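Supplementary notes for students who missed Thursday's class. We covered one full example, reproduced here. Read the sequence, then the structure, then the short commentary at the end.
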Amino acid sequence: MELHPPATDTDATRPPGKRARNRLAVEAEILRVAREHLASDGAAALSLRAVARDLGMVSSGIYRYVESRDELLTRLIVDSYWSLATAVRAAHDAIPADDLDARWDAIGRALRAWALARPHDFALIYGSPVPDYEAPAERTEEPGTAVIVLLVALLDDVRRAARLADPDRLGIVAPRAEAVVGTLLDAPMFASTRLDAVTLTQGLAAWTLLLGAVTSEVFAQLGPLPDGNALFECLLAASRRCVIAPVGD
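Structure (token representation):
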């Protein structure tokens, strides 16, 4: 799938005019300054007036580019999701398709590297919800699930290669898995796969462990760590073994 927003009128084959270029430049500056405010004040305190002030713009002028604080948050969220998805896809695609273990590890390491480099963007999309804000699903669902779509494809490749880990070792039983996640398989991302509820539950366990490893490090939930890299590699291997059996196992 494409790891960038759908084409818009500004994506025509001819270069945009001067007015369009100026608008894009201003919008990019608004996002840049808004990220600085995320870092210093947090998402809940994000203010269009404060962003306008830092840009040297009258407070009413910014509304020509961003109609509300919620709209600004949505743009930041969408941009962060696409940035993460692009980084993860690039790392994943550099690995040979038949090296399933390395593909999983590449996804995990790219997720961690992006989160550590952009902790405030990571907090925006994977941290606590912003009070009085609800992300519009029609704009955030595609970018927000881009990494998951990649993991689903990998999981289906693991199934095809007969490398799925034994779900019994995780205590996953079919009736419970079907009752809990069976309806999720109706989502379009699973249309071209043959994944069942048990395998999906394994994948969710692996993803939850991987995301939790990154979250605990970014938010320092475990306190100072003597070797964050070593701990992450241990948790990365554990998450991989939730879904991919060792060769010859």
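Commentary. The CA atoms of residues 178 and 197 lie 5 Å apart. The mean pLDDT is 92. If anything here is unclear, bring it to office hours.
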